[in-house]
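ok trying this again, last paste got cut off
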Amino acid sequence: MTGISVRQRLALEMHRRLIKDEQERHPLRHLFWECTLRCNMNCQHCGSDCHVSSACLDMPFEDFRKVLERVRTKYDSHKIMVIMTGGEPLVRPDLEKCGKAIYDMEFAWGIVTNGWLLDRRRFDALLASGIHSATVSLDGFRDDHEWMRGVPGAFKRAEAAVRMFVSEPSVKFDVVTCVNSRNCSSLPEFKEYLISLGLKRWRLFTVFPAGRAAGNAALQLDGKQFRWLMDFISATREEGRILPSYGCEGFLGEYEGKVRDYLYTCQAGISVASVLADGSISACPSIRSNYVQGNIYGDDFVDVWENGFGLYRDRSWMKKGKCADCRWFRYCEGNGMHLRDGNGDLMLCHLDRLRK
């Protein structure tokens, strides 16, 4: 790693002050609802280890509605995005009804989907229900995507979903791609394909060792591949034909300001909260270690948001292990919360990969 420039360091110092202020204010901006754990795919990298028929039943919408009604008493609903995730949210036959109720409460809402169930009828129903944003998962060309998703025909369905969303300017839309050792080398060609579909925004992330991915080395990038990915994203952003962005996983040293629309920060518990399928109150739904702060069936969500989340808002406890003497901890604060295991130990450091 060659280090950061003076300009980057100045920007990081300013950004650090802003994050400290946000940690104090913790303005709720994104509220995820894990509306189901059921899924119609068998993804190799699934962090929640979902099943086609989950033992955890779908949360009744009325239970989540009570959370939103309480949130409205304290905060401006126009400033909060509700994102329905899973599992696969479209397996809920009442998803559009839920979305319309959320819209009527004056929250913007969106979904993260694999696209399998998104035919034209459901697409039109989502639009009629006031959908504001959507993300479709597409992990490369057919062989790579279906290898990752474990379902023949998944690529065609996802492509059809992408085509529908790019044709609808009222919906803020992106594609998310899980970059792994299998699809990494084909990303330049895949970029051209996405541009040909009319896609404007493309989010890329890499797998962290949790859930089904914990022991699957084929899903991980080595140091050379990871650095190549950062260079690819940076160069593609400079081209200006499509806007790629790397996920919010961790601090990237010299690549800060080059591969995202923002400097690194983990907003889990600072501006991001979630209600999980069993009612647990957490932060980013990617966090699978036990950092739950309460449960809507026994706790007041607003009280938990205002007075809980201490581990998220003061991350000095992360300064241990390989982070203890790291000179970048000032800006990184120990990486994303989803990269910490149940003991609080770091599972993956992106700076380590960049150094290799």
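PB: full thing came through this time. The mean pLDDT is 93.
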